[in-house]
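pipeline/complex-builder :: batch 7 item 3
reading input block
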Amino acid sequence: MKKIVSLVLALMLILSVLPACAEGFENYKSDFTEGTDGWYARGTGSAKVSVNEGVLTITGRDADWNSPGKDFALNAGREYSIQLYLRQNDVSSARFIVSCAHTKDGTETYENIFKGKVKQDAWVKFTGKYIPDAYDSYTIYIETENAAEISFDIRDFTIKEAAVPYPEDIPSIKEVYASYFPVGTAITQSETRDAKRMNFMARQFAIATPGNELKPDSVLDVAACKKLAETDETAVAVHFDAAKPMLDYCRDNGVAVHGHTLLWHNQTPEALFHEGYDSNKPYCSREVMIARMENYIKATLEGLEELYPGLIVSFDVVNEAIDDNTGKLRDCNWKKTVGEDYLNLAFGFARKYARPGMVLCYNDYSVPYQPKLTGITELLKSLIADGTVDCMGFQSHYQVNTPNIIQIEQAFQQILSLGVKLRVSELDITVTAARDAQFAAQAGRYRQLFDLYMKYADDLLAVQFWGITDDQSWLNTEYPLIFGMNGKPKAAFNTLVKLP
Ligand code: GLA
């Protein structure tokens, strides 16, 4: 009782100096190099704290709750991580509790946050997490359990507030660049089930690409195709089951969609190229494959337009057709079955069945490198002559130092001189370790790229990252995006949302 009364009095005193509304918690560390730093002895007896060379010591205790404590303006419902080192030399082993005393309307209550054991004369690290309920004030203190009279030391006490998941009070990158180009991202099916994540996505991004859900592996209905092939080898069946939830979300939340991808050498069922849609049977003839190509493109573009009128603003017709080393057409099933003109045919069908105004793109990686750039240029020239291509998608999976910015700009100029637009379709910049210095370099690199993008804004249809947060990136061990886990803004985000 004595304890409660005196604590209430002490806390009333403290309350008068605490801000009425605790917001904007500043992460805190006590290194005790300049005094007690606001720590005081909680007790009515002779307990007192003193400081010596970075260590806070409490002596003169006569109750377990006689403890070093400090007041913090915590925010209810937020997560705090607490860390400190503890040492005692009085008994062979003692148990300690990190606790919180809190008051509401003048009544003080207590909570044990975490416990641990400290053997004689050894520093022991204590770590724990705390999510406080709503109170008027909070005091974190370190007490003992059945070791009322021992003296003990603490050092390097830190308390940090965890980032708010999917923060709403940060700038929106799409708004910052709205007068330059739409900023977007890729999204995947599993993310679509997380409403908080999707709402964060929609606050930050103006356009989204289904990461996998409009690729032939997701769209071609092989079982239905097999049935149809019994009477017509050229028939194609498609469905949009994987894409629908994200397309619904985008439609309902004002996010535009970029389609990716009609044809690709990868993530395409092998069965598509075989008689009877059976991978064990021979490859189809050129004529059958041209007809399947036309039917696939028609069914996909018209099917999506019917379900989502106007939602899909642009589409990758073919992805990654040029070989890195030769600059010639990459070997793939389309080239094998249809022949060298398969891209001209595909773009022709896409133009025929796309809603008027839909932007048709050729998309590839390592565009700024030779001999790829020359190969892509030749390909585009031929498609431009057909009048079927509008845009070159630069995937832009980059590193902090490569390719250099001059190379990228030269590639922009070379492609633009042909008379097509540009898109940055899959941007990410890898680093080799999750270190502040690397994230600073990554931020600098993003800034340099966005400066270039702003310069070419008139001809740049969109800038899309390949994913929202590092932990869900295809390159998750190389931390390539502007948000960390749960949408935590990284240095790159903070840099990009400030225009130069
Ligand atoms: C390429 C493709 C994308 C995606 C990435 C890896 O860049 O264009 O669709 O598959 O590889 O995630």
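note: The first strand starts at residue 28 and ends at 30.
queue -> next item
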